[in-house]
Amino acid sequence: MANSFLLKAEPRSDIGKGASRRLRREEKIPAVIYGGDGEAQSITISHFEILKHLNSDSFYSQIIDIDVNGDVTETVLRDLQRHPYKPTVLHADFQRVVRGQEITVNVPLHFLNTESAAGVKAGGIMSQHVINVEIRCRPRLLPEAIEVDVANLGMNEALHLSDLTLPEGVALTAFAEGDAEQADTAVVSIHPPKTSSNEEDTAEVEAESENE
């Protein structure tokens, strides 16, 4: 497990849309902790507390300790409701983490050597088709990200989910059920740059001239 975050929270008993609007005017947001061995718990978190972590990719995939009046609960972020056009958070859902029990989370992919990849140096264009993957593991083994080294990826080549190097104890949920071959999605590929129709026409004319 790479990172851990801490959020200070307060218990919340006032439920409903009106109460939520009042909280937001006070720069607080309503949230819920659920799952695990306990009942759902309604809480209030400072809007600033949430905002200061949102630029970190790890916040969406790592353990978040929520301190409610000194009682700390380990959680992972399950849902974040944002305002449609304002830079504000409206609501958050957190799921309890039970040590020893596996959890399912999305973690980001970090691509390495993108500018020095063999296919890119040959003039190709890299396309990243997947930016995060769903994994299953025990909380203590939760990685911050999955690294994808593309240094040896050549022109017209691709890396698939099955090519990813996973940390010990971490599994992709994509292969848990069904057709593994169908689930083996391309993660990243390198292809030649597209040529304009004029360039293609010129090439065809030149080829015809050489054959005459």
From TrEMBL:
Residues 102-194 form the Large ribosomal subunit protein bL25 beta domain. The keyword Lipid biosynthesis does not apply. This is one of the proteins that binds to the 5S RNA in the ribosome where it forms part of the central protuberance. PANTHER family: RIBOSOMAL PROTEIN L25/GLN-TRNA SYNTHETASE, ANTI-CODON-BINDING DOMAIN-CONTAINING PROTEIN (PTHR33284), RIBOSOMAL PROTEIN L25_GLN-TRNA SYNTHETASE, ANTI-CODON-BINDING DOMAIN-CONTAINING PROTEIN (PTHR33284:SF1). One of its GO terms (cellular component) is cytosolic large ribosomal subunit. Residues 198-212 have a biased composition (Acidic residues). This is Large ribosomal subunit protein bL25. InterPro entries: Rbsml_bL25/Gln-tRNA_synth_N (IPR020056), Ribosomal_bL25/Gln-tRNA_synth (IPR011035), Ribosomal_bL25_b-dom (IPR020057), Ribosomal_bL25_C (IPR037121), Ribosomal_bL25_long (IPR001021), Ribosomal_bL25_short (IPR020055), Ribosomal_L25_dom (IPR029751), Ribosomal_uL5_bac-type (IPR020930). Gene3D superfamilies: Ribosomal protein L25, beta domain, Ribosomal Protein L25, Chain P. GO terms for molecular function: 5S rRNA binding; structural constituent of ribosome.
